[in-house]
């Protein structure tokens, strides 16, 4: 792995030269994009990287901070830095299933819950016209059985939707297809993200210890009239999901 300044868009320092830590970050970024370092790989420590690249440990540290800001790695205290880049940014808008499939990550889904519920509190919170919702809880696993996400969807119910799920099955096995078939059209939405510890019940589903910090995403979508279509509460294993926002 070599540090080079050709074909790299970086900030220029005194004398018109790229800053050294950005050259290091670009070199590591190239290695990740070219597949030399793959998603989940652990980078060598700061001391080893500094020796390999003939730079100071401080330069390596700043380079790793750049990579983390670009969404290519995550750094865990006491464990090191791990590659999170999987070929292209993970977009949430088409849903986790399609986004993961587009990245070549094979998953399977365990349907934990599928029933129509009455939730007046949620209806008031969302400003829904009815307190009837379709509750769909799904645990997503990798092919080796590792659980990576838990999604709890609450979809504003209507007669057509309830007819479609009467046999406790989703149309085509897809919640998105079921919603489209029921005439539920998404026009706008909002999403929130935070890192929070798992409670005992969710930790058991993820086969980890209670209190382990996972990503928690909350998404609310609405139709053209501003009425709620779906609320999705997702718990995501940070070893497999990351968010990168540009502005």
TrEMBL record:
Q: Which GO terms describe its biological process?
A: negative regulation of DNA-templated transcription
Q: Pfam families of this UniProt entry? A: GntR (PF00392), UTRA (PF07702)
* All copies of domain HTH gntR-type, residue ranges: 18-86
Give the record's keywords alphabetically.
DNA-binding, Transcription, Transcription regulation
- Tell me the GO molecular function terms: DNA binding; DNA-binding transcription factor activity
Query: Per its UniProt record, what PANTHER family does this chain match?
Result: MANNOSYL-D-GLYCERATE TRANSPORT/METABOLISM SYSTEM REPRESSOR MNGR-RELATED, MANNOSYL-D-GLYCERATE TRANSPORT_METABOLISM SYSTEM REPRESSOR MNGR-RELATED
Put simply, this protein is called: GntR family transcriptional regulator
- The species is Scrofimicrobium appendicitidis
């Amino acid at each position: 792995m070599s540090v080079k300044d050709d074909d790299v868009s970086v900030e220029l320092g005194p004398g018109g030269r790229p800053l050294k830590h950005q050259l290091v970050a670009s070199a590591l970024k190239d290695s990740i994009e070219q597949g030399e370092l793959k998603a989940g790989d652990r980078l060598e420590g700061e001391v080893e990287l500094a020796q390999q690249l003939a730079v100071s440990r401080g330069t390596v540290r700043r380079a790793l901070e750049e990579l983390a800001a670009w969404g290519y790695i995550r750094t865990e205290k006491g464990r090191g830095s791990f590659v999170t880049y999987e070929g292209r940014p993970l977009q949430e808008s088409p849903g986790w299933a399609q986004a993961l499939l587009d990245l070549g990550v094979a998953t399977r889904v365990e349907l934990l819950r599928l029933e129509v519920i009455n939730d007046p509190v949620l209806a008031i919170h969302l400003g829904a016209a009815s307190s009837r919702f379709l509750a769909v809880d799904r645990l997503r696993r990798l092919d080796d059985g590792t659980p990576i996400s838990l999604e709890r969807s609450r979809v504003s119910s209507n007669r057509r939707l309830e007819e479609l799920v009467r046999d406790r099955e989703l149309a085509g096995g897809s919640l998105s297809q079921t919603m489209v078939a029921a005439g539920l059209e998404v026009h706008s939405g909002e999403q929130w993200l935070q890192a929070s510890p798992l409670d005992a019940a969710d930790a058991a589903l993820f086969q980890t210890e209670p209190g382990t910090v996972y990503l928690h995403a909350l998404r609310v979508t609405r139709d053209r009239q501003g009425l709620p279509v779906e609320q999705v509460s997702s718990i995501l294993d940070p070893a497999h999901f990351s968010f990168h926002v540009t502005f």
